[in-house]
């Protein structure tokens, strides 16, 4: 039985990603780990893989960041469109949508489009993270913590 869900993002610069997810979006670092033995390679099928992993959380949200030292990865996130096949965005349920929107704008975050009220009290905006990954913030007026 599934009892939870998390999202993982492979990043090019862990410090930049922490400045974005921790400092700007307010997530909390709950674990950091350097994987230099063969465990990560065994699980992903790359025998020489080495990486740094950071887990972040906020409320029930759980995000796992990977920075691979080996093998080097390529970044195709900037080319991916929301209608392309595959995982298209990281969705974050928020309170204080408009305040967060202003904060993101002040930090020159790249938005895909404009914030939209999908139905009364439900606001949505899409923007890009440091490596081009798409993030969504959504506030629902009936949201309960």
UniProtKB/TrEMBL annotation:
GO molecular function: metal ion binding; methylmalonyl-CoA epimerase activity
Keyword vocabulary terms for this entry: Metal-binding
GO BP, sorted A to Z: L-methylmalonyl-CoA metabolic process
Keyword Membrane tagged: no
Presence of keyword tRNA-binding: no
Domain named VOC: residues: 3-140
PROSITE patterns linked: VOC (PS51819)
InterPro entries cross-referenced by the UniProt entry: Glyas_Bleomycin-R_OHBP_Dase, Glyas_Fos-R_dOase_dom, MMCE/EMCE_epimerase, VOC_core
Lineage: superkingdom: Bacteria
PANTHER family recorded: BLR5325 PROTEIN, METHYLMALONYL-COA EPIMERASE
Entry protein name: VOC domain-containing protein
Native source species: Mariniphaga sediminis
């Amino acid at each position: 039985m599934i009892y939870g869900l998390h999202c993982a993002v492979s990043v090019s610069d862990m410090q930049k990603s922490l400045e974005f997810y921790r400092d700007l979006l307010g997530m909390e670092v709950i674990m950091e780990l350097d994987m230099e033995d063969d465990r990560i390679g065994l699980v992903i099928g790359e025998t020489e893989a080495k990486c740094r992993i950071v887990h972040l959380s906020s409320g029930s949200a759980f995000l796992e960041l990977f920075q691979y030292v080996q093998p080097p990865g390529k970044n195709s996130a900037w080319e991916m469109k929301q209608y392309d096949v595959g995982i298209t965005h990281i969705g974050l349920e928020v309170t204080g949508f408009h305040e967060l929107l202003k904060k993101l704008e002040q930090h020159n975050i790249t938005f895909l489009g404009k914030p939209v009220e999908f139905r009364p009290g439900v606001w949505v905006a899409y923007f890009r993270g440091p490596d081009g990954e798409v993030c969504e913030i959504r506030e629902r007026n009936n949201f309960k913590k």
